[in-house]
Amino acid sequence: MAREINRVKSTNDLELKDRLVAINRVTKVTKGGRTFSFAAIVVVGNEDGVVGWGLGKAGEVITAISKGVEAAKKNLVRIPIHKGTIPHEQSAKYGGAEIIIKPAYHGTGVKAGGAMRAVLESVGITDVLAKSKGSSNPHNLVKATILALNELRSPAMVAQNRGITVEKVFNG
């Protein structure tokens, strides 16, 4: 079932923090020798349920990062957070990367590595268990993590879909 992505309309009132996930030096061989350029994958978020990712490519590292930040600001989505963790377990796959994220009790912390940690901390999740299987490519891990976060449903959304109160969602 394809769900509509919760895009953020305006970035003017958001305090976004950016995190560099990975930087990759790429080489193009020309008649005159090798030409180096850089590709940077960046995650931005307000640590309160909004996150986005972007890819920037340029001849210099700083320019690539700033291009990545601008691309990420155009890609923002809203994620439901419930008491510092995610509302329910979720898995996703993008390319060769497969991830599983599970809610955790308060005080657990973000148990995730590398690219997934950057995304989860940018969203503002403080307690979560995460596991990645398959490819460790940071591009695919970021995309799979955001895909999984997009599929999360808040307790209010579940209650509305079922036509019951939020209390009944938790108490059965």
Write up what this structure looks like.
This protein has 172 residues and is of the alpha+beta class. Helix content is 29%, strand content 34%. The protein has helices at 61-73, 114-123, 138-150, 155-162, 166-171, and strands at residues 17-30, 33-45, 50-58, 77-78, 90-94, 97-103, 110-111, 128-134. It is elongated.
Q: What ranges have pLDDT less than 50 throughout 5 or more consecutive residues? A: none
The main sheet comes to: 4 strands, antiparallel
Summed over residues and divided by their number, the pLDDT gives a mean of 89
Compressed to H and E, one letter per element, the order equals EEEHEEEEHEHHH
Please give the number of β-strands. Answer: 8
Helix content: 25-40%
Q: Strand order within the widest sheet? A: 1-2-3-4
Q: What general form does the structure show? A: elongated
Kindly list the characteristics that best describe this protein.
single chain; 172 residues; 5 helices; 8 strands; elongated
How would you concisely characterize the structure shown here?
The protein has helices at residues 61-73, 114-123, 138-150, 155-162, 166-171, and strands spanning 17-30, 33-45, 50-58, 77-78, 90-94, 97-103, 110-111, 128-134.
